[in-house]
Amino acid sequence: MRNKLPELRGERGWSQQRLAEEIGVSRQTVISIERGRFDPSLPLAFRLARVLELPIEEIFDDD
């Protein structure tokens, strides 16, 4: 699953660590999600959407 996390995080000026703290995971988890090595659980995807104030569909693409 592709995602736009690096771009969305960059638009906010957030580091990977900052995003990790906002959603309650490790920095390594954020790195793995951004690189497409890990697909987040549904609850984690909802936390990302809530923190980024975007619908899940604007963050993730199931292509």
From TrEMBL:
Q: Which domain of life is it from?
A: Bacteria
Entry keyword set: DNA-binding
- Pfam families, alphabetically? HTH_3 (PF01381)
- Domain named HTH cro/C1-type is located at 7-59
Concerning PANTHER family, the annotation shows: DNA-BIDING PHAGE PROTEIN, TRACRIPTIONAL REGULATORY PROTEIN-RELATED-RELATED
Q: What is this protein called?
A: Helix-turn-helix transcriptional regulator
The opening ranks of the lineage are: Bacteria, Bacillati, Actinomycetota, Actinomycetes, Micrococcales
